[in-house]
Specification:
The protein is mostly beta strands. The chain has strands spanning 11-16, 35-43, 54-58, 75-76, 80-82. The chain has one domain. A five-stranded antiparallel β-sheet has the order 4-3-2-1-5, with no helix packed on it.
Amino acid sequence: MTIQEFKPYTKITARFNPKNIATLRFCMIGEIGKVYTWNYAGRSDDDEEYPGQTRWMPAREHDNEMSEECRGYWCPEEDLEIVDDEDASRF
């Protein structure tokens, strides 16, 4: 199943692996490679960054694992790699 097939209110387990580190928020650098549960956060319009891509936000269950600055950060689908439950170890 690809990320594009998911519907609103969907949660996924995925590894954060950004494609463009140059535009990444500084606080998110330490999150690279970590596995989180992500909540659907809408789709980007054609005139926004990452047009047509689904946006995802870390689930609130991870608030104690992230800095306050990074909570609520959304990322485009291209920055996530869906993992199987067996591969969902957290760093």
